[in-house]
Amino acid sequence: MHSQTLPLAPGQRRFATASAVLGWFALAVQLYLILWGRWTDQASLVGGLVRFFSFFTVLTNTLVAVALTCAITDRCGAAHRFFRSPIVCAGITTSILLVSIAYNLLLRHLWTPEGWQWVADELLHDVMPLLFVGYWWLYVTKGLLGLKHLLAWIAYPAVYFAWLLFRGNAFGDYLYPFLDIGTLGLGRVVINAFGVLAGFVVIGLIIVLIDRLKARRVQNR
């Protein structure tokens, strides 16, 4: 897999560092809020951790924070090479854009968070997606993407959906109302899931197209 081995571009370290710090901060706030809620309800904290890492938003923002952290470290291990890969970064970009778009279209109107929950909500769903898209646009090598990579990226939301169904069947908690089989039924949930997956594919196609156009523009200079 291709690895970004070139020296960091001017401003890249500062941008990635600030974005990584903000990303980890947002995740820490959200984790605290979930665990605090479990504590006050005298519920299992381990269950709180499982719930925290069961959200697609949390998983994808964790990938964003890890990729940004790997970008500014000097290590050359397999994990660092993986998360520096332009192909992986483009896949994460596609996923974090899906997080933001799906949340703002399907979920934002369902609640009105306040205080620190509002802070975490805005950071995870709006700020971090914009920052990582900016990072990908400005600093990640272009010209390496193809449709085969989009097919590989689809595995992430597909596996997540399978996990969500398993978790929901086991605990009766589907996390996202548009994927709640208990309320909507399996048929409707499958339609909704394919709709979200179609949105992912459209976003991915746009990312691949931008990648090719920007690479061609650079070559023609």
TrEMBL record:
Carries keyword Nucleus? no
| Keywords of the record | Membrane, Transmembrane, Transmembrane helix
InterPro entries in the cross-refs = Pr6Pr-like (IPR049713)
Q: Is the Transmembrane keyword given for this protein?
A: yes
| UniProt protein name | FAR-17a/AIG1-like protein
Where, by residue number, does the polypeptide cross the bilayer? 15-37, 49-70, 82-103, 123-140, 147-166, 186-210
